[in-house]
Amino acid sequence: MMGNITAKKIARWATGMILGFGLGFSAVVYIGGAYLQYYIATLPRFQSVLIESIENTVSSNQSRSIEDIIKKEGIIYAQAVLYGGRKGIEDTAAQLDKINYKQVIESVDHPILARKVILGYIKRNGLFPNGESHNFTDIHENKVKIDCSEAAMIAAATLSDDGYRPLLLAMAPSSEALASNKELGSHVVFLYKQYDKFGYIGANGMAGPIFGSIKDMLSSISENLDVEYTRFQIYDLNNESRDWIFSDKGLDKFSDFQPIKN
């Protein structure tokens, strides 16, 4: 995942190199490419969280049945896990305009409710691959369109007061796949652990704590999205910025992807 400022900086440097004066096109491309690689290499990276350091989430809502929650909320679990049913989602979208971002956070205390709120924001703000990342208050107050990074941020923010560590799992195809297919890109979801199993919440779906390993989770996400993700990074938003819920400061970084180990 790449922050919006970084993307714009890279675009400006690349454009400046191409528009350079007094050099042939080939020389400009060579120098520009070399400098771009150097520039990217010097950019700050997210601090990786080791898988073995992730502890089980201790939350007061763990005893609440998912079936009871979805019955009360008027949604179907299978629909919530995928792209969401219409029933209940329109009400959620309308409710978001009536409360502030703090009240949204207070209203969510379970992963299935975080997924429902994501669907509400998608309904209200729209879904669009924007290539940028935004903090939660920006999403709520300025109604920026939702991409995978925004969805993960929504889940992290709304569960932040319920014992869930704000972990994001970024993933990417191999470098060779990216080079051969310009349509491919990285993806990010909110990650949590309960009962010694991993679960995730994202723009394209969610899964409860059913995965025994990150490798199994990435394999499932790859199958669902029809993209083979072979590299990943886990990072903690609290390690990157104290103000990540309402500020982008400290989040303008590159993911340091590592290959999935067998």
Give the SSE map:
Layout: H1 4-18, H2 25-42, H3 66-73, H4 77-81, H5 89-96, H6 101-107, H7 111-125, H8 136-142, H9 148-158, E1 167-172, H10 175-180, E2 187-194, E3 197-201, E4 206-211, H11 214-225, E5 231-236, H12 237-240, E6 258-259
Antiparallel strand pairs: 1-2, 1-5, 2-3, 3-4, 5-6
Describe this protein's structure:
- The protein is an alpha+beta fold and 262 residues long.
- The protein folds into two domains: 39 residues; 209 residues, no CATH class.
- Helix content is 44%, strand content 13%.
- It contains twelve helices and six strands.
- A six-stranded antiparallel sheet has the order 4-3-2-1-5-6, sandwiched between helices.
- A hairpin with a 4-residue loop joins strand 3 and strand 4.
- Helix 5 crosses helix 7 and helix 7 packs across helix 9.
- The protein is globular, with a radius of gyration of 19 Å.
- The N terminus is likely disordered.
